[in-house]
Amino acid sequence: MAVVRRQQIVNAFLALICERGLESVSLDDVAAASGVQRSVIRHYMGNRAQLVHDAAATLIERYSELIRGAVGERPGAREIIRYLFSREWTADADFPDRAFDELFHEAARDPALRDRLRGAYDLLVELLAAGIRLDRPDLPPDAPAEQIAYQIVCLAEHNAAMQRLGFPPGQAAAAQALARRLAAGD
C-alpha cells in the first residue's frame, strides 16, 4: 500500500510540474491532485525536497526503461545513436520532458538532485561507451570510449532541444550522421 500511495503522490506531483512548473506547485496542490490530505503527503514523502528527489528517480527510471526497451540489453553504438536521434526520443512530449526540464533547472540549486541527474547521464554515457567498445574492440587507448560517448550524448541532447524548437528534421539527420562518424572513429 505504501509503495502504491507514494507512486500516486509522485505521479500527481509530476503532472502538476508539467502543468504549472515546479516553483508554483505546493504540497497542498499535490495533496489535492492526489486526493489525499496534506498530512498524508508528509507521512509518505516527508518534505518537498524528498518529493522532488522521488520525482527525479521516477523520471530517470522511465527514461531508462524507454532506452532499454528501444535498444535492448547489449546494444551496439549504432542502435543507441539511432534511438537518441529518433523522432521517438526527440518528439515534443510534454510529459516527461517538461518535468525533467524543470527538475534539471532545480538541480542548479540542489547538489543532491544534481548528483542524481548526473548519475542518470553517467549511465547513458556508460551504455553508449559499452556499445562503442562492442563495435570497436580495437579502439586505441588514447581515444577512450567514454569520451566519445560523452560527445555523442551532448550532441543528442542538444539536438533533442533544437528539434523541439522546430528545426528541420534534416538537421537531426546530419547530427545523427556526425554521431555515427564519432562512434566509428571516422
UniProtKB/TrEMBL annotation:
Tell me one Pfam family matched here: TetR_N
Q: Which molecular function GO terms apply here?
A: DNA binding
What keyword terms does UniProt attach to this protein? DNA-binding, Transcription, Transcription regulation
Organism encoding this protein:
Planobispora longispora
* Annotation: DNA-binding region: 26-45
What is the official name of this protein in its record? HTH tetR-type domain-containing protein
**PANTHER family, alphabetically?**
HTH-TYPE TRANSCRIPTIONAL REGULATOR YJDC, TRANSCRIPTIONAL REGULATORY PROTEIN
- UniProt superkingdom: Bacteria
Q: Which Gene3D superfamilies match?
A: Tetracycline Repressor, domain 2 (1.10.357.10)
Q: Where is the HTH tetR-type domain?
A: 3-63
